[in-house]
Amino acid sequence: MQEKGSISIHTENIFPIIKKFLYSDNEIFLRELVSNAVDATQKIKRLASLGQYSGELGDLRVEVAFDADKKTITISDNGIGMTAEEIKKYINQIAFSGATEFMEKFKEAKDANEIIGRFGLGFYSAFMVADKVEIQTLSYQEGAEPAFWVCDGSTEFEIGDGILEERGTEITLFINDESAEFLSQYKLQEILDKYCKFLPVPIKFGTKTESVEDGVDEEGKPKYTSVEVDNIINTTNPIWTKSPSELKDEDYLDFYKQLYPFSEDPLFWIHLNVDYPFNLTGVLYFPKLKNDFEFQKNKIKLFSRQVFITDEVKDIVPEFLMLLHGVIDSPDIPLNVSRSFLQADSNVKRISSYITKKVADKLAELFKADRKAYEEKWTDIGLFVKYGMVSEDKFAEKAKDFVLVTNTEKENFTLNEYKDKVEANQTDKDNQLVYLYTNNPAKQDSFIQSATKKGYDVLVMDSPIDNHFISHLEQKLEKTSLKRVDADVADKLIRKDDAPETVLTEEQSTKVKDIFNKAINKPAYNVQIESLNPDELPVTITMDEFMRRMKDMAAMGGGMSFYGNMPDNYKVIVNGNHKLVNRILQEEDEAVQAQLSKQAFDLALLSQGLLTGADLTEFVKRSVSLI
Ligand code: ADP
Ligand code: MG
């Protein structure tokens, strides 16, 4: 039999299109051809299990080989094979997926998904790297004749008698000059490792040397000899294909090491497993995050029926979940399509919300099962949970029950617990709950101490996400606001009706204000006399909470440049009830008055790290003279 014909497509030049536009990464030709070979072996297995094939199955396997001299790469399998008629149907008619018909036939098969054509034009991706492609094949069907097909990348092909004597298919690519890099052991091994590492059928690529025990030597110690064994590049049953009940913690940890050899152990993991309304399996790991979540080198890997597709999962998992590591495998995620299409795809949307829910459920479960262990991990997961809450409302809804806040005593509370704790003492005269926080416990120590003295609790909010988390809490919590502990003097942080009485007359107040204004002599500092508790510091310097936040946001590029450009403005709060103020008023020598007020002011600056340079030097000199 010898026949010539044209590949039935509508445009004459589909090959140049395939070469240029369809696949940006030409290395995936190997993924496509190996997947086809794997599919072919799966199909024969399926036919045997349905009783429609009664011959020997043999050891089902796929083999990849290359010949640098002949410039060929060969992919062979002992799968289902093809008759000449099937070649015409499945190979010649581009875009007609043979899997469609196969599907019709075996609709009732349980794992029908397994055989849906994977990537549409898969086979033709060979022409991205080859000038000529040959197929030698022998169908499993009784009495089938071996068939041969060759095509040089034009729309002309030749079909004829083949030479195979065993069931299966052998595809040979004659690699073109631009793609010579693929004719290397190292390069092919690398591509196979990337895409084929977890395929369900053993993939052989050459041989490797292994040392095996071979009897004992004179001293009774085991002897070793080297033998050549098949180099099988894949693990056929990766853990995500197994049921969680079969797996131990070590299995999950080993697999993590296999995926990311140089990483610290993860904190915990989630085994994903759904088959309705979409099909998805996978294992997601929670890494130790620390504070450098911008820098995440281990990405989630996306597979489709054990074939690696990509580690750009941006449109499939919500952004905050990209902090996780691990694998997701779903035949339902459309592949080789544009990003915008992915975003609009309803399966992708459902998958994304499913994963979000699973992650939230897992965290809730950990929290419930062992609060102590959960708290120990909080430094690592806290960042992730807060990030999730500010970016995903659905997640926030669930996470509000297990998100923790931590105070300066390092005690952790849920939001409800915290409310109960501070409600009595931290509700202001307008019935508004005020949560106090510090973003820098060392620097704001004097403020924290003053607040604690009043029985207030102070939360530590010092991670990069906390600015956003604070706004989030204010939006979500009823009648609650958050104030940084240095936003005001302790007496005024939470306005109550029980303000201490003023001891100064209005006239004295004005006089004190003048003395301080003169002594400080800086326009950015606005002096204000307040009647505070006598044991509060004589002078405190604060920046208004609102102004500070606006400036913080401007600094982070939040588009508040108006505030960013405003000069820093501070409030200098002089405690009119402090005995030092009284002493200044009594003092008759104006120079001493000025010196005392300057000293009190500098001390306030000092406690906040605002006293620097010449001012600091002057302060030290003055202090020495005062002793
Ligand atoms: P898809 O895999 O999506 O069906 P391909 O272009 O990759 O599309 O392959 C087209 C068809 O060619 C396959 O569906 C299958 O019927 C047939 N085919 C390709 N490679 C093999 C093979 N190694 N063994 C048997 N049939 C094959
Ligand atoms: Mg294919």
What's the average pLDDT?
A: 85
Number of domain units: 4
Going by helix content, strand content and strand pairing, the class is alpha+beta
Through-space gap between termini: 113 Å
Number of helices: 21
Q: Would you identify the CATH architecture of the largest domain? A: 2-Layer Sandwich
Give unreliable regions as ranges: 9-13, 95-100, 105-120
Structural notes for this entry:
- The protein is an alpha+beta fold and 627 residues long.
- It has four domains: 2-204, Heat Shock Protein 90 (2-Layer Sandwich), CATH 3.30.565; 239-374, Ribosomal Protein S5, domain 2 (2-Layer Sandwich), CATH 3.30.230; 404-493, 3-Layer(aba) Sandwich (Rossmann fold); 506-550 and 562-626, Four Helix Bundle (Hemerythrin (Met), subunit A).
- The chain has 21 helices and 22 strands.
- The strands form five sheets. The protein has a nine-stranded mixed beta sheet, covered by helices on one side.
- α10 (378-391) crosses α14.
- The termini are far apart.
- Residues 32, 36-37, 40, 77, 79-82, 90-91, 97-99, 117-123, 169 line the site of adenosine-5'-diphosphate.
- Adenosine-5'-diphosphate (ADP) is lined by residues 32, 36-37, 40, 77, 79-82, 90-91, 97-99, 117-123, 169.
